């Protein structure tokens, strides 16, 4: 068995070529080698190698607004062109005119209102088809890239590395579960059943003589902050041993994973690269990382310094 | 490749030895061979081979009451012995005195009240540990078997057969997700992330200085009837192609699976064997199969006649 194991994992190849050598990369590889080595006292069988990752700001970019928010704006504009009466609030009016500041002034409640109006009244299948097309053909306002290409190459390598080492990789996101599933397989190699996210009201009902799954307004589950451990409990039913996030919305998930009895790895992507991506942390309208920065060291969580730890940012070279 | 495939699936061995030869067994094997044969126009890749099964009455017995209901009765009795004031309704009083008829007179609402009181106020881990112990050590009132042994051998063979042929097997049950997960791996080889069920309020919170997942009263998702396709959408995100159920609570799931564009197999376990198990269908307090019996033939669903189709019932010989 040892011979086959050695053949199967060529230790000479670098599993994380877009990560610069340094403490973070070393810690990741050390952890993975420990929990996958049957001779290690940290060894865990494959069924316990659960890895969960936040999506926005962790696996792909999230500025100037969550991609799902930008998608919602585009959908709303189209809907309002056909029926202006749907613009029944200041946030919706701001959204339809592309006024991002006006939308963000409405805070989370405003974003949810925007999502309610733009993400309901269609089947799950139709919604995902629309989202997939938008993500693969529309260009981002500042980078000019397609959204699907704004995933982080070092994180794609990390996902692949973990899967090669027997981990199951999950997304656990505050974003909408149907939206992420529209692209997760193509973007990350993560199938729909391994995506946990915020859930809207979905009903099985007859429409035009066919039984379909329809999206309605309103949330049934908000998968952020303390909701993330709950989402993990509901969908996975096991405590993850490897968790990646980027904001205080991931604090509870990191805490949950790293407060079990066994080995666990917590990773926080710190946005430090204004030239190649964006630089932000303690303040802002999105991806606030404050308590996480304060407590990471004491909790043994690993901060990824994007500027210095990542040799390359994007999965597609611009 | 063909050579290896032939070696890997020894066609001479019967994959369903506890099924008597007949139309149902033939239909199952024909379907599986078709969707797994790359030369067939019904071929589907492994990622599309999703199989979902109801639990109570489909994979294990459900009489004289759902096992989870019997567990709840035992828990309630213990709780009431310590604090009689929790018996605040007729249903709860009936339950604590073992009066099944009194509990069932309360209908679904009564059962939910019983579950609320007996399934809250502990961590998910503690609850699952209690449930696992109960299922593996307590004996069933009429069979005298341990509950964990009252699974159906032919269905265990079907689950294994499907997995051997590249299917992912899921439970999609009206029963509680935490309860089923306590035993699903041991009983069926189904890991927690492949169990979909009714969900109670769960919160991530601090108890005695530790962050835990606590079970509270109240349901957040009822995974029965039209809820089953919704539960499938939330947890799996794909339409199943093989579905097994036993009651009209599975009608929507069967309908959803078999109304897609591709091949799909619907199976209904019909309880026809009063000698070896139980006989019931159109009437009763549990597992009512009425519309399903009427429409199975027209919809192409396969009725399993337990008495004639199954050579053996239980996974453990009495
Ligand atoms: Ca994030
Ligand atoms: Ca049932």
TrEMBL record, chains A, B:
Molecular function (Gene Ontology), one example: hydrolase activity
Keyword Lipid metabolism listed: no
SUPFAM superfamilies reported in the protein's UniProt record: HAD-like
InterPro entries, sorted: HAD-like_sf, HAD_sf
Keywords: Hydrolase
Lineage: superkingdom: Bacteria
Full protein name: Haloacid dehalogenase-like hydrolase
């Amino acid at each position: 068995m040892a011979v086959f194991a050695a053949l199967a994992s060529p230790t000479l190849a670098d599993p994380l070529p877009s990560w610069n050598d340094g403490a973070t990369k070393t810690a990741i590889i050390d952890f993975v080698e420990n929990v996958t080595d049957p001779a290690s006292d940290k060894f865990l069988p494959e069924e316990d190698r659960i890895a969960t990752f936040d999506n926005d700001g962790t696996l792909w970019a999230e500025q100037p607004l969550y991609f799902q928010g930008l998608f919602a704006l585009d959908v709303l504009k189209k809907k309002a062109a056909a029926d202006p009466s749907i613009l029944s609030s200041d946030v919706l009016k701001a959204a339809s005119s592309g006024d991002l500041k006006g939308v963000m002034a409405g805070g989370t409640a405003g974003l949810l209102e925007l999502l309610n109006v733009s993400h309901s009244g269609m089947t799950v299948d139709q919604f995902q088809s629309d989202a997939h097309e938008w993500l693969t053909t529309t260009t981002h306002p500042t980078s000019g890239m397609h959204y699907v290409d704004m995933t982080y190459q070092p994180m794609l390598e990390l996902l692949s590395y973990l899967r090669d080492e027997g981990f199951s990789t999950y997304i656990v996101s505050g974003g909408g579960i149907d939206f992420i599933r529209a692209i997760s397989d193509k973007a990350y190699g993560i199938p729909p059943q391994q995506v946990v996210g915020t859930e809207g009201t979905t009903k099985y009902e007859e429409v035009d003589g066919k039984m379909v799954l329809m999206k309605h307004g309103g949330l049934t589950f908000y998968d952020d902050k303390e909701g993330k451990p709950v989402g993990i409990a509901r969908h996975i039913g096991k405590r993850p041993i490897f968790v990646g996030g980027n904001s205080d919305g991931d604090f509870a998930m990191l805490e949950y994973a790293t407060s079990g009895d066994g080995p666990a790895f917590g990773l926080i992507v710190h946005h430090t690269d204004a030239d190649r991506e964006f630089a932000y942390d303690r303040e802002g309208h999105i991806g606030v990382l404050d308590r996480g920065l304060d407590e990471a060291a004491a909790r043994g969580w690993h901060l990824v310094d994007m500027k210095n730890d990542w040799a390359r940012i994007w999965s597609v070279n611009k």
